[in-house]
Amino acid sequence: MNHDKLYQYNNKQRWKFLLFLFAALIAAASLFYTNYLVKSLSKSERTKAEVWAMSTRSIMTMPDVDDQFISYVYAVRDSLSIPAIITDSNGNIIFWRDLDPTKTNIKDQIDSANNSLEYDPVYFEKQLAKMKRNHAAIALPLDTGETWSVYYLDSLALRQLRVFPYLQLSLIAIFLIIAYTVFNSIKKSEQNLVWVGMAKEAAHQLGTPISSLMGWLELVRIKFDAEDDSSLNEMERDVKRLEVVADRFSKIGSIPSLSNQVVYRVIHDFVQYFKVRTSEKITFEITGDKSVEAKINIPLFDWIIENLLKNAVNAIESEGKITINIIDNIAKEEIFIDISDTGKGIPKSNFDAIFQPGFTTRKRGWGLGLSLTKRMVDYHQGQILVRESELGKGTTFRIILKSNLHYEPTQV
């Protein structure tokens, strides 16, 4: 692979990894700091629960004192704003705080005017069980030797704080995904415009010299009376091939005109042209269904086959074989075109990367062939993939096209 292009490709991958790592560090820092705040607030709420329990105990056990001190103790007790329950040594609920007032009615804790309120033991059991799962009990010893247990739940603010970083990171992730998708789409659109512009300009520039070459060939035939000269005929075929190439470039970016074609015949005609321009040490074989049809634009489809055959030839170092197998998948109404070679193979890690612009394993390659191939397969509403590959044994590319033949299930 060209070292400059390999460096650029690896550098691009490295930047992606660094950005992902940076995002992961931000997420980890956010979770760590939120966890620190949660722990701090949790300690503060536990202290509040202890203060509430002790103030409640003081109200129940303190001797007669002045009203001002009693008011102070009540104020301290009522300052707690989290759900809490106190049970005696037998597990009976004796005090509670900030529970649903419509389901609780403990003597001496509900205004006597609220006669419609009833004690709901099931509700209390559920709340007490939830508090026991949420936090360990706070032991509150009395002078009588009895020990009360204090249970409480986290405040709403603390519960929301636990969830906040995950919600925040989720929203940021969604925003980044949308932003990346939009910018990536814009970037691809710009790249497409550049590709289309370059392709059409190349087709335009090729037009004049190709026409000139055709004229010179006719003059040579007339001047030397060489109407049936094999060399000139072969030169004419190559010039016409240049016309086809120019036509291909002019079609990039436009919606191609597809027509119904026999796949075997189209591939066979191109292979006949291609193989005489390849080493005699490489043999070609076309197998499979000879009658299956698909919607094809012949100049663009020839380009697809040409790029894959060139890749196969380059993968074969000395001598080898290239096989094209055409399979009619009746069940899915698809056509599989498998192009196999006996070349050096492709590592599995590169199966997806080889279709990306700029990726190549050749020293003088630009990494555009397979990218263009994929684009032209997309024009045919098909797919292309590496079906299988083994280092040192060869590679099989698969093209999937929609079959033009529709099969109706037979009725018994």
From TrEMBL:
A GO molecular-function descriptor: phosphorelay sensor kinase activity
Segments traversing the membrane: 17-38, 163-183
Domain Histidine kinase, first and last residues per copy: 201-405
Entry annotated with the keyword Ligase: no
S-adenosyl-L-methionine listed as a keyword: no
UniProt keyword terms in alphabetical order: ATP-binding, Kinase, Membrane, Nucleotide-binding, Phosphoprotein, Transferase, Transmembrane, Transmembrane helix, Two-component regulatory system
Catalytic activity: ATP + protein L-histidine = ADP + protein N-phospho-L-histidine
Pfam families registered for this protein in UniProt: HATPase_c (PF02518)
CDD domains (UniProt xref): HisKA
EC number(s) stated in the UniProt entry for this protein: 2.7.13.3
SUPFAM superfamilies: ATPase domain of HSP90 chaperone/DNA topoisomerase II/histidine kinase (SSF55874)
Designated name of the protein: histidine kinase
Species annotation: Sphingobacterium gobiense
Biological classification of the source: Bacteria, Pseudomonadati, Bacteroidota, Sphingobacteriia, Sphingobacteriales
